[in-house]
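Worked example 2:
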Amino acid sequence: MKLHTINTGNFKLDGGAMFGVVPKSIWTRTNPCDERNMCNWAMRCLLIEDGNRLILVDNGLGDKQDAKFFGHYYLNGNDTLEKSLKQAGFGFDDITDMFLTHLHFDHCGASIKYGSDQTKLETTFKNATYWSNAEHWEWATKPNPREKPSFLKENILPIQESGQLKFIEGESSQQMGNDISIAYMRGHTDAMMLPKINYKGKTVVFMADLIPSTGHIPLSYVMGYDTRPLLTLTEKEKLMKEAADNEYILFLEHDSVNECCTVQHTEKGVRLKDTFTLKEFFGE
């Protein structure tokens, strides 16, 4: 097995929305904002090379939306999904499994693209199985009014229409292989999936939107986007304790500075220990 970091570019979101009830005077210590209160965030994905399988975990925003849509999110940086895959030695057609932690647009937007005639939508990864789960798929395709703007039907419905969609079944499922298990989280959105990867004697956890950045490690630092913030607190507490006890490597999808981190127990609770890249830690 080999892990590759796939950077797809940065975007900006309101800092207050990203930190919920935490005051701006506190969250700006770790996540500075611009004059519009916007903080810069990564859309960092993970590529798992495992035997004859090439598993991509999330895929970023994509490029099929119009200029008005992208204008809300201040896209920046030189990274793209295609460029990062190429740097790893691969292309879209090489992906065998497209694993979607959840179906918010900044995690699954590149699942679907316009075809050569720029009118018909088609899957970006034509040879891949697209993985979601039945519970989250139901939640995303029949969205509540609060989350509806994040579940864009053009990102989601063509996956099912393509015939490439399959559902993960259970937390100990071996559908992703013997070295990948799934942790389900229901505070941010219903049945978000976090892959836990057994890699070179360590456990690497793809954190998705449970811990978007190192600034979100303290227990009460919960996004305003979360549908069940008190449940997020419970989920964070359990997983952060487990991560500190077992020295998990946390792979951060949205931290624009830090790719990975470890955490430790302190008198104030679980806190940040070290930050690093996968390459730095594993010497690859």
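The CA atoms of residues 79 and 88 lie 13 Å apart. The chain has nine helices and 14 strands.
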